[in-house]
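Colleagues,

Please find the record for the four-part complex below.
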Amino acid sequence: MRIGELSRRTGVPTRLLRYYEEQHLLHPERAGNGYRSYPESAVARVGQIRGLLDSGLTTEMIRAILPYLCGPGHLVPAPEDVPAQTAALLQGHIDRIQSRIDCLARNRDRLTAYLAAVRPGGR
Amino acid sequence: MRIGELSRRTGVPTRLLRYYEEQHLLHPERAGNGYRSYPESAVARVGQIRGLLDSGLTTEMIRAILPYLCGPGHLVPAPEDVPAQTAALLQGHIDRIQSRIDCLARNRDRLTAYLAAVRPGGR
DNA sequence: TCGAAGCCTCACATCAGTGTGAAGGTCAAG
DNA sequence: CTTGACCTTCACACTGATGTGAGGCTTCGA
C-alpha cells in the first residue's frame, strides 16, 4: 500500500509517516517510481508507534523496543542471537516504563481520591 | 528558601525552576530585593512536577491537575466551590492518564513476555 | 493529451522543554 | 571597600515532534 492509503487508514498525516521512517521506525520498500510501499502490517505498526508516542515515549525509546513488540507468538528476532547484553538493555527499558506507570498510577489515585472526596458532597 | 537551595535540594537547575514559574507551576513569593522565596513545600512540589514531566505529561496538563495533587488529606480547593464542570474536566484528565497507563502496561507485558521466552533458552 | 490527484524531496516554522551566557543588582565576609 | 557567591532578567540556541508549503515527478481518468 502507498503512503496515502496508510495515512487514511491510520489517521496519521503522511508527514509523520515519512518522519517515522527517517527515525527508523518504519521501513517501507520503494516501488520502481520511488513511491513508498508499505505492507499490510504497517497499519498495526503505526498504531503501536502512535500509542507509545502519545504515552510519552520518544522515538528513540520506541525504536529500541519496537522489534520486540510485534505481538505474542512469533518472536521476531530469533531467540538464539539475543545476547545477554540486549536482554539487559531491554530490562532497563521495562524498568523505565514501569517507573512511568507507577508515577502515573500514583497520581491517578490521588486525583481519583480527591474527586471521590468532593463529589458526594458537591452539588 | 531561595532558588539556589531549592535547586540543590531537588537537583533541578534554577533555569527550570524559573521556567516552571513562567508556566504557572510554581508561585514563589518575592523578597524585598526581588529574590524568589520558596516555602518548604516547594521541594515536594518540584518532585511532583519532575515525576510527571518525566512521565511524559506536558506542563499544561500538569498545571491542570497539580492543584488536586497536594497529598492525601488536606484537599486544597475547598470542596464547596468545585463546580461540576471542574469535576468533569478532572475526570477527563484521569481518563487520559489511565489510557497511558494501559498502553504502557500492555507494552511492558509484551516486552516481559518476550524476555521470559528468550532468557531461559538464551545463553 | 491534459488536468487532477498522488507521490517525491527539501526546507522553513512552531512549540515544549532545556542549556547557556551576558549584563547587572544584592549581600556577607575578609 | 572590595571580592565572590548568589540573585535578577533577557536572549539566543538546540532537540524532538509536528505543521506547512514550494517545486517537481508519476499516474490515471476524461
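Chain A has a mean pLDDT of 90.

Comments are welcome before we finalize the supplementary table.
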